[in-house]
Specification:
By secondary structure, this protein is an alpha/beta fold. It folds into 2 domains: 175 residues, FAD/NAD(P)-binding domain, CATH 3.50.50.60; 120 residues, 3-Layer(bba) Sandwich (FAD/NAD(P)-binding domain), CATH 3.50.50.60. It is built from 6 helices and 19 strands. Strands 1, 2, 5, 6, 7, 8 and 19 form a 7-stranded mixed β-sheet that branches. Strand 11, helix 4 and strand 12 form a beta-alpha-beta unit. The longest helix is centred in the C-terminal third of the chain and has 19 residues. Bound molecules: flavin-adenine dinucleotide.
């Protein structure tokens, strides 16, 4: 890293950031990617990705991340492992503020992704790491032969519940409606899996336990108001995501949930600043859409730089 002005700084090294880096380096833009943890983003906590084209047998999230990183680096992508704490994006030169210094770039791509939403119920924080988890890939082996509760009804909840069945004896899958939102093929697999018991029309009210850890998840039937304590050793929460947007504050236009608003060229409300992947307002948050967005954003940044 040097103190010169970059053509492009990319914030976030998930599938979107790595793809933007690949395209920008091939366009010979002087590019820096800033990642606060490790490259790969959310796919690092995804056991198996089977809907990303080109891998007919599927691929582990970690393997896909490693391949994306290697491909971007092969074209010269430089990465700094730092956290961006704020940005000042107005004007021709954008300031990217880290803990102890600032970097400057002519264009900026924000690919900082998203993180799991919390339930905001009693016991959730108390038992986090002692039964409550947001990551089956990380924690499923701790629940071998046990019973867990999974909360949610979308693709991630169903896919990850299926993964849990490789370890646990039983999964109670709690969903607030009477049918799943997940892709049909995932629904079919979950509904025919003998280890998964559906708990329909129900919402979690509290996570219960004691010194030994989590003991049960209290759920309420939204139709009958009946309360039920599901005895379990763990609780996995997959109810959606929130953008990693604290560092953006009010510098860019965002929607009511905090996702960055962009047009079809991934341009934000500030000229020279682009956003792509899970952090933007989009109807689908997947690897395939993140990388597509990122390719558009990188080419749009190149055109902006060249005055097209
Ligand atoms: P992310 O992957 O969220 O990456 C963002 C990166 O930005 C992170 O590495 C983060 O550390 C970094 N970052 C954030 N803030 C800062 C900051 N201030 N400074 C520096 N760096 C920062 N999709 C599929 O297509 N198929 C699947 O099977 C699938 N399964 C999934 C299973 C799970 C459990 C989860 C959680 C997601 C799954 N997804 C799946 C969704 C997919 O992982 C995301 O859509 C995709 O990772 C989005 O990529 P992204 O680059 O936009 O964001």
């Amino acid at each position: 890293m040097d103190s010169n002005i970059y053509d492009l700084v990319i914030i976030g090294g998930g599938p979107a950031g790595l793809t933007a880096g690949l395209y920008a380096c091939r366009a010979r833009m002087k590019t820096l990617l800033i990642e606060k943890m490790m490259p790969g983003g959310q796919i690092m906590i995804t056991d198996w990705v089977e809907n990303y084209p080109g891998f007919p047998e599927g691929i582990s999230g970690a393997d896909l991340a490693e391949r994306m990183t290697r491909q971007a680096e092969a074209f010269g992508l430089e990465t700094a492992y730092e956290e961006v704490v704020a940005i000042r994006p107005q004007g021709d030169v954008k300031e990217i503020i880290l803990a102890d210094k600032s970097l400057f770039a002519k264009t900026l791509i924000i690919a900082a992704g998203a993180f799991a939403k919390k339930l905001q119920i009693p016991g959730e924080d108390e038992f986090y790491g002692r039964g409550v988890s947001f990551c089956a890939t990380c924690d499923a082996p701790f629940f071998r032969g046990k019973t867990v509760v999974a909360i949610g009804g979308g693709d991630t909840a169903v896919q990850e519940s299926l993964y849990l069945t490789k370890f646990v004896d039983r999964v109670f899958l709690v969903h607030r409606r009477d049918q799943l939102r997940a892709t049909r093929i995932l629904q079919e697999r979950a509904l025919s899996n003998p280890k998964i018991t559906m708990v329909w029309n129900s919402v979690p009210e509290a996570i219960l336990g004691g010194e030994k850890g989590l003991a049960a998840v209290r759920v309420r039937n939204v139709k009958t108001d009946e309360i039920q304590d599901l005895a379990a050793d763990g609780c996995f929460i997959w109810i959606g995501i929130t953008p990693n947007a604290d560092f953006i504050q009010d510098t860019l236009a965002r929607d009511s949930q905090g996702f960055i608003l962009v047009n079809a060229r991934m341009e934000t409300s500030v000229p020279g600043v682009f956003a792509c992947g899970d952090i933007r307002n989009t109807p689908l948050r997947q690897v395939a859409t993140a990388v597509g967005d990122a390719a558009i954003a990188a080419v749009a940044a190149e055109h902006y730089l060249n005055g097209f």
